[in-house]
Amino acid sequence: MTTFGVAEIPDLSGTTAIVTGANSGIGLATAHALAAAGARVVFAVRDTDKGAAAAADTPGRTEVRELDLASLDSVRAFAASWTGPIDLLINNAGVSMRELSRTADGFEATFGINHLGHFALTTLLLEHITGRIVTLASGAERLAHLDFDDLNWRARPYRQSRAYNDSKLANLLFTAELQRRLTATGSGVLANAAHPGLVETNIYRHPGPRRPVDRLWALAFRLLAQGADDGALPVLYAAVGDIPGNSFTGPSHFAHLRGAPQLIDRSAAAQDPDLARRLWATSEQLTGIHSTV
Predict the structure, then answer these.
(1) What is the pLDDT of residues 212-223, one digit of tens each?
(2) Is 204 exposed, middle or buried (0-12, 13-18, 19+ CB in 10 A)?
(3) What family is this (predicted)?
(4) Which of 116, 224, 227 shows the shortest CA–CA distance to 163?
(5) Contact 124, 61 (CB under 8 A)
(6) Catalytic pick from 158, 164, 204, 237?
(7) Where are the domains of the chain?
(8) What is the CATH number of domain 6-287?
């Protein structure tokens, strides 16, 4: 078992890291740790005012750029404006929509933001990336089952938990197929995924009346949740740890809900290469963005 902590982050002076959704929660904790280690950290956020406020409280070199993962036009604009190498791309931003909602391009929002937005961003930035790509997944992927006939919930009754679980399985399949493609081209870039554990962040906070399931979550948080700084450790381990590509990192205790980061297992579906290739092809078709690897 690893004893990885922020003290094990190497000197990152001279490197550049992009963290999506860096204005709060795990993203902010990740950005803070990377900047403290010397990296220039770009806060890629939808709300630049909130991003600027968060960056102002972060040590080291920071920059704020607008990125709305719910809009492919925004993703394209962000990528088109980028110059220079990227040592770390942290695909952190995520949502869990209580009600069915859609992105600017008509995708179901949870799948559209958590997977398709990051798929598009990574694909468009890939020519600049020299180090690692870390995508936040979740142990909830074990409860997923991708319905390729209705990925955007046009026919099915919407279920928040199922939509979220499916998006997290997609994150792992994307990581696996990306690493396969990178390896095939001889690239030294590594693609990893991280499960932060149970962390009380904004993703679990929703307006409106509390449902029975919300009370269950509140109890779970009270008993098992860890803070954002601890939740960021598996992400940081995936970013700088001595681990191979296509690693999946997560907490070591209580069914991977909390504890020091380590390599963890994933479901059989998340290891299915045919499923990964199918999702990649479907993602290219849906976004209209095709990979060069």
Answers:
(1) 665 665 666 656
(2) middle
(3) Belongs to the short-chain dehydrogenases/reductases (SDR) family.
(4) 116
(5) no
(6) 164
(7) 6-287
(8) 3.40.50.720
